[in-house]
Design brief:
Protein name: Cytochrome C biogenesis protein
Shape: globular
Number of helices: 9
Keywords: Chloroplast, Cytochrome c-type biogenesis, Membrane, Plastid, Transmembrane, Transmembrane helix
InterPro entries: Cyt_c_assembly (IPR002541), Cyt_c_biogenesis_CcsA (IPR017562), Cyt_c_biogenesis_CcsA/CcmC (IPR045062)
Radius of gyration: 20 Å
Oligomer: single chain
Domain Cytochrome c assembly protein: 19-258
Number of strands: 0
Structural class: mainly alpha
Pfam families: Cytochrom_C_asm (PF01578)
């Protein structure tokens, strides 16, 4: 509620939707991540989505309120090219899509970690346990282990069975969340093209932001297409989505800082 109140008050004081710089967009992104975080709570269910989005929300909000972006804390008057309704539609859709795609990609990354963590020995057993606990993956496993134990107490291969249930659940959630994020990303890119044509007379100019937005769209299009092949479901598609996680940060964060 505090983030929502901050966005509304900044909107009223500035006279425009608060998405004009990196600071405001980070606040909006953390708000979107928080909305995704609260969905399972509204449904009175504890699942992997809340556990995954918690660190993302905290880190995004923490960076936005750090001293690195102090010069952006004050509202500024928008230049004429940005004084358009398409600004709110384009940027809000893009940030909502980034938040959704980040959550879906993190679910895929969690799937890969749970699936392959026994094959990697970069950390000692004690450090590995602490690392997993830090990122809340152990909480996810405990929840599904407890539920599986209640329903399948006589199952002969319990550890492998509940691990299979968990990875299937993560895969299903990741696909649903990324599908929604891809739809929002497509709408955001189309709105951006209309906005660019209205402001500069061209729908597409292949500048760095447009190029990386197209790369992001392509990565997740490949992910969704790979889901049509049964052999690519699960680990293979999760690997593509994990690459998409890095691409999103380059598209959003890197280009904003460099540009």
């Amino acid at each position: 509620f505090s983030i929502t109140g901050f966005l509304v008050s900044r909107w009223i004081s500035s006279g425009h939707f608060p998405l004009s710089n990196l600071y405001e967009s980070l606040i909006f992104l953390s708000w979107a991540l928080y909305i995704l975080h609260t969905i399972p709570k509204i449904q009175n269910s504890k699942n992997d989505l809340s556990a995954i989005t918690t660190p993302s929300t905290i880190l995004t909000q923490g960076f936005a309120t750090s001293g690195l972006l102090t010069e952006m804390h004050q509202s500024t008057i928008l230049v004429p090219a940005l004084q358009s309704q398409w600004l709110m539609m384009h940027v809000s859709m893009m940030l909502l899509s980034y938040a959704t795609l980040l959550c879906g990609s993190l679910l895929s990354a969690a799937l890969l970690i749970i699936q392959f963590r026994k094959n990697f020995n970069f950390f000692s057993k004690k450090k590995k346990k602490k690392l997993l606990k830090t990122f809340l993956f152990s909480e996810i496993e405990y929840f599904y282990a407890k539920r599986s134990a209640l329903k399948n107490t006589s199952f002969p291969s319990f550890p492998n069975y509940y691990k299979y249930q968990l990875t299937e659940r993560l895969d299903s959630w990741s696909y649903r969340v990324i599908s929604l994020g891809f739809t929002l990303l497509t709408i955001g890119i189309l709105c951006g093209a209309v906005w660019a044509n209205e402001a500069w007379g061209s729908y597409w100019n292949w500048d760095p932001k447009e190029t990386w937005a197209f790369i992001t769209w392509t990565i997740f299009a490949i992910y969704l297409h790979s889901r049509t092949n049964p052999n690519w479901k699960g680990t293979n598609s999760a690997f593509v989505a994990s690459i998409g996680f890095l691409i999103i940060w380059v598209c959003y964060f890197g280009i904003n800082l460099l540009g």
